[in-house]
Structure formats: C-alpha cells, structure tokens
Amino acid sequence: MKKKLTTYSLIEKIQEKFDLPDAFGYISRGFFNRFGHLLNNTKPEITAGVVCILSLLKLKIHSVSLLTICETLGFRMSAAFYQVKNNILKKVRIEGFHGFRKTPQLVESILQEIPYQVSSVS
User: What is the spatial distance between Cα 114 and Cα 30, in angstroms, rounded to a whole number?
Assistant: First the structure.
C-alpha cells in the first residue's frame, strides 16, 4: 500500500511539474494498477517513471521527453528500458524490444491495455 501511495504521489509530481492534462494522471494510475505487480522489486521512482513514460506514449504527448521524466525522478533511461523489456513485455510474451524509439510498435499492445480515447494531446 505504501508503494502505491508513493508511486501515485510521484505521478502527481510529474503531472504538476510539466503541467500535463488530467488524462495523464488517470492513465498513469491505470498503468500502475494493471502492471505494478510486475514491477514489485523496483524503487517507486522507477515504477512511477515507467508508468509515466507509458502514459506519455499512449497520449502522444511530445512536450516532455522520456529522458526528462527519468531525470526528474532520479534514474537513468536504461532502468525504464530494462523494466519495460524484462518485467512487462517479457511477461506478456513480447520479444524483440530494443527501445521506445527503435521498436515502439512492440509497446503498442500494452498501451491498449488501458482504455482511453484520445486523438492527440500536446
């Protein structure tokens, strides 16, 4: 329960710092609720970063870089990459992920796990 509250607090911090829409917080919490159990042995900062990155990708928000999310929460992009590749995608039997820019189509299926209709948000 403590990790959940800490993660939610970090999501809110990112949302406020970068003035992101309410949908960002909603989607980030949705990703945490759906995939958080796969990130059990991870610091809350990295867990929050991963779900925030997935939310930025889902909502097609380009005003904040993925790297900026990582830096703001105090970890390296490689940690987010590792968590998505080994603790989320592998667990749902998706292989071949080489990065958010190189193979974004592989993340697409997990982005659809959280329902939300949005065309594009800046």
Answer: 6
